[in-house]
Amino acid sequence: MSQLLPYETIVKASEGDPEAVAAVLSHYAGYIRSCAKIDGHINTDMQEHIVRKLIESLLKFRFDR
Asked: Which residues are in the Helix-turn-helix conjugative transposon-like domain (predicted)?
């Protein structure tokens, strides 16, 4: 079972803290690679697309809802 990211890390990542964003990307790196596999090979374009979307989503995420 995977460990959860600390709440503080997620908050900092949503605020644009580079170290926190890197921690989130590192945490999900294996899952991202897995999702980017096509015919058993990692599609780097897809991997980069997923990373971009994750970063965009992090920066749009709001905790005050």
From this structure: 7-62
For residue 50, give the 3-state DSSP assignment. Answer: helix
Task: Report d(CA 9, CA 16) in Å as an integer.
Answer: 11
Question: pTM of the entire structure?
Answer: 0.86
Asked if 46 and 2 count as a contact pair (C-beta separation under 8 A), the reply is no
Q: How many CB atoms lie within 10 A of CB 32?
A: 19
Higher-confidence residue of 57 and 64: namely 57
Contacts of 12 (CB under 8 A, 6+ apart): 19, 20
CA distance 56 to 37: 22
Q: Give residue 53's pLDDT band: very low, low, confident or very high (50, 70, 90).
A: very high
18-35 vs 44-60: helix axis angle to the nearest 10?
A: 140
